[in-house]
Amino acid sequence: MSLALILTCIWFLTANVMAMLPSQRRHWPQAWGLIVCGIPILGFVVYEHGPWLGLLVLAGAMSVLRWPVIFLLRRIKRMMRRRDETA
């Protein structure tokens, strides 16, 4: 197994352990930390194994971090609506 996939497995295990721990701030600091660490790992996976495995890892990470993705999509949708209203 390559180093990129080992790091990906460690990232997923860390994400699952963090999700099980209680948090006063609804896990947002942990989510930002996982995002910051996960982006370079995703780039490393794409570099080592190609875009198809990278897309698979991205889909898995998006399922783990679904709320940041949902909020990002909502923000993009709001921005598109504002742009359409001003035009």
Give a quick rundown of the structure.
It is built from 4 helices and no strands. The protein has 87 residues and is mostly helical.
Structural notes for this entry:
By secondary structure, this protein is mainly alpha-helical. It has four helices and no strands. It has helices at residues 3-20, 28-49, 51-64, 66-86. The mean pLDDT is 94.
Structural class: mainly alpha
Radius of gyration: 16 Å
* Backbone shape: flat
Q: Could you spell the SSE succession in H and E letters?
A: HHHH
For the termini, the CA-CA separation is 52 Å
Low-confidence stretches at least 5 residues in length (pLDDT < 50)?
A: none
Average of per-residue pLDDT values: 94
Q: What is the number of helices?
A: 4
How big a fraction of the residues is strand? under 5%
Work out the number of β strands: 0
Largest sheet: none
Proportion of residues in helical segments: over 70%
Topology record:
Elements: H1 3-20, H2 28-49, H3 51-64, H4 66-86
Helix pairs in contact: 1-2, 2-3
Give structural attributes.
single chain; 87 residues; mainly alpha; flat
